[in-house]
Amino acid sequence: MEGGAIAQFLPLILIFAIMYFLLIRPQQKKLKDHQKMVEAVRRGDLVVTQGGIIGKVVKVRDDGEIEVEIAEGVKVRVIKATLADVKSKTEPAEAS
């Protein structure tokens, strides 16, 4: 009887394992990569928001916001987590 019970749960276990490796694990990796990208944003980077706005980072704030210049003299505050991509990265300033 015990062998029959294990055989009944085996397909469920296999389905969960497949779902984990095909859906859950890649999503977690993508989230970690996005968090690293957001944490590495610096002044001067060219960024794209999830709304499709492209601009240059003017100021990085401590409260999870950045100031982005989208046109000459036009600056908007953007939540860091809403960044979709960093197009061009600037080199970190060297400590003197």
Mean pLDDT across residues: 89
Task: Predict the CATH topology.
Answer: SH3 type barrels
Rounded to an integer, what's the Rg over CA atoms? Answer: 22 Å
Most strands sheet = 5 strands, antiparallel
Query: Could you spell the SSE succession in H and E letters?
Result: HEEEEE
**How much strand?**
25-35%
Class computed from helices, strands and strand pairing: alpha+beta
CATH architecture: Roll
Query: How many strands in all?
Result: 5
CATH domain class: Mainly Beta
- Summed up, the helix count is 1
Which strand order spans the largest sheet, edge to edge or round the barrel?
Answer: 4-3-2-1-5
**Which stretches are low in confidence, meaning pLDDT under 50 for 5 or more residues running?**
none
Question: Roughly how many Å apart are the termini?
Answer: 74 Å
The structural domain count equals 1
**Helical proportion?**
25-40%
Shape: rod-shaped
Give a brief outline of the structure.
With 96 residues, the protein is α+β, with helices and mostly antiparallel strands. Helix content is 40%, strand content 31%.
Keywords:
single chain; 96 residues; SH3 type barrels; five-stranded antiparallel beta sheet; 1 helix; 31% strand; transmembrane; translocation; membrane; transmembrane helix; protein transport
Task: Give your account of this protein's structure.
- With 96 residues, the chain is an alpha+beta fold.
- It has one domain: SH3 type barrels (Roll).
- Helix content is 40%, strand content 31%.
- It contains one helix and five strands; from the N terminus they run H-E-E-E-E-E.
- The chain has one helix at residues 2-39; strands spanning 46-49, 54-60, 65-71, 74-79, 83-88.
- The protein has a five-stranded antiparallel sheet with strand order 4-3-2-1-5.
- A hairpin with a 4-residue loop joins strand 2 (54-60) and strand 3.
- The radius of gyration is 22 Å and the shape is rod-shaped.
- The mean pLDDT is 89.
